[in-house]
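Async update (no meeting this week)

Hi team, since we skipped the sync, here's where things stand on the single-chain job. The sequence we agreed to prioritize is pasted below, unchanged from the tracker. I ran it this morning and attached the output directly underneath so nobody has to dig for it. Comments welcome in thread, and please keep replies under the output.
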Amino acid sequence: GRTASLLWLTPERLRIEQEIRKMQRAVEQSPATVVITDPNGTIEYVNSRFLQTTGYGAGEVIGQNPRILKSGDKGPEEYAELWATILAGQEWRGEFLNRRKDGSLYWEAAIISPIRDERGVVTNFMGIKEDITDRKKMEADLIHARAKAELDAAEEKILEGLLRLSLARVPMQEFLNRVIDTLVDEVPWLKVLPKGGIFLTSDKGNGKQLNLIASHELDAEILNSCAAVEFGSCLCGRVAESRKLLHDGHVGSDHDIAFDGMEPHGHYVVPIVHGDAVLGVLVLYLPDGHARNPDEEQFLRRAADVLSIGISRRYAAAELERAKEIAEAANQAKSSFLSSMSHELRTPLNAILGFAQVMQFNPGEPLTEKQKGSIEQIMKGGEHLLNLINEVLDLSKIETGEFKPDFEDFLPAKSIDQCLVMTQAMAQKYGVAVRMDGDAADLPYIRADRMRFEQVLLNLLSNAVKYNHAGGSVILSFRRRDEDRLRIAITDTGPGIARDVQDQVFMPFRRLGRESGAIEGTGIGLYITKDLVELMNGRIGFDSTPGEGTTFWVEFPVVGKASDPVARAAAALDDSPFKPVAAPSERVHTVLYVEANPANAEVMKHLFAMMDGVELRLAQDAELGIAMAQGDPPDLILMDINLPGMNGIEATRVLKESGNTAGIPVFAVSAEAMQNTIDKAMAMGFADYITKPINLAEVADKVRKALGLA
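Output:
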């Protein structure tokens, strides 16, 4: 029976032994680390993975405690909690940072479980552990990357704020104060003390001295000692010289300034560089022993770059403002000079042209043919000089923006006819035929400054005549370009404009190779003409063929007014300023002329002697003029502006405030022809403004209209 029993058990035991061996191989070959200890924690078994992971041999660990792997990562309380769990028969799960035999560290995720016998008594503990070093590294890298991204975002936000501040229109002092306050108070990851300052290099970055401009809670001793620092002196001076960021975790003997009570500290000193110039340095205080931090240094370099933008922009803005002030002063000086020059030239020219006109138009004293020729030469020379003065003044008005077109809607027929008539004398002299192609009476209303429109046509017509040849012709034509614009073209048969200078036609002071010719001019006529046309919302251009001739054209806006035959007929009437009054009044109208210059007064006397029904009274100064006006009020007052003593403006103010003279119209008479002067005079209550040298026909017309005789 015993033999039969043994034979029956043998296969079972074999099976059990096979299972045991299978389990042993599974544990031995497991990719996880397996450790088995007795109840006291003494190692009884480790598998091959344990030996591979730790670097120990089996003989070195059997009989030892697992604490041989401790790295110090866990404290006693954590191990106490572990033992309490497994001694209570429960499973413990956690992570260890262990140390290999060679001292290197690795991470493991562990499960430690009690092993019980058939009676339930704990006989051993088994730990199964997985190497998670790579996973922990990935987690750490991810955390670091996230922290870096958050830091970068925070840095960008700070730098963006500093950049906006750099570009804002705030003064330099406020800008620097706000920057240093931001850096020491609002950048939590920047491990600095709440102290710092910004130095700027003298002479806007071109000097060799640093001046403390902005500071934050610096000691009084530092404020006094570091108000000005030479390049090469102390930390900030040496950084300015080297142009390299400096980190000093503990200020020692290289700090040139020390005082009682100065606490240990460190410094970041950052150069503020723009191009080749060191604009200044940024100085921040650090806790004593501060370790160098590449991220902080990179941030501070970028902050210094933003600072350089803000500083250089403010320097540039200051230079621009200074240049603007200089330009405005120069422009004002130019305007004053032109005004003075105009006055000084117009005053004697008024007498020359005035007496010439009196002699020319005085029917009571007819001239001989020789005298007529002499007077014509005087008028020609005087008018040429006046044109030169007017061109220079027009150029100044346009360049300074003083010229403002006086827009009106008008039929251009009368203006075109007048310009053609005014050109005839010059055309006859040069032997050039001037004619119009078409009927100007059919032209539509245009919107422009009438006087400047005529100036444009006269300039183009006179150029077409002057730059022509004997026997040549000038044709003025017109056509609608479209519903909105009228084109007026002036075509000559002159030599044309050379192709290599055609791009200079509208440039100032260019006479296109005719400087040495017999034709007089300044070379600014076309330049002014172009500006006048464009200021009136028009266009100008030309086509020229050397050897055949040139066509200049201008276009002006057409306005949608209905065609009015009566208006067209009225616009074409020739109103002569010296024409007889249709129904002259028997009453004699009085005009008071207040003028200190005897020659100018004499010219006006001759003019009024030719006007029926008008009596001229003269006063040599403002005081006499006021007395005469108040004693026997005239119908009209002509007031020279530049009177000795009380000027004409003050005299007019007195008259306007006096009861019996307040309603008398007063014309300003002056050699001041600048537009701003005219505008100011009109704003002061003058009824009109007459510029010297006077045009007798124009003055006569204005006087008649003011007196109700026209």
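Quick observations from my side:
The chain has four domains: 12-131, 140-321, 404-571, 589-707.
The first strand starts at residue 33 and ends at 37.
Reply here if anything looks off.
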